[in-house]
Amino acid sequence: GCAAMRCSLGGTPCYNVALGSCAMTTMKGSHNIGIGYGSVVGGYGCASYNIGLGCLALNGITTGSHNIFLGKYSGCNNDTGSNNIFFGRYSGMSSSCGLANITTQSNRIT
Fold it and tell me: pTM of the predicted model, to two decimals?
């Protein structure tokens, strides 16, 4: 997509897949998958082994790793959280640094 992986600088961003306009911009990490507009957009951190599927899913990740976020805006405030699974639109938006959470669209963290 237009501007996908744009400004992915520093470090060695490799083994990433970005599909969608502005997906995975400003990303320095590796082994990430971002599908959807603005998905898996990093704050110049080295986030790795993440999957974001949906518009702005996992937008704002910096150093978090091993996350799976599925749905529009899913985990869009998660910057340093790791080992999380968020399902559904808006799931996990209130979690910025959680560890080993599973949430659904209702934003319940277990």
Answer: 0.87
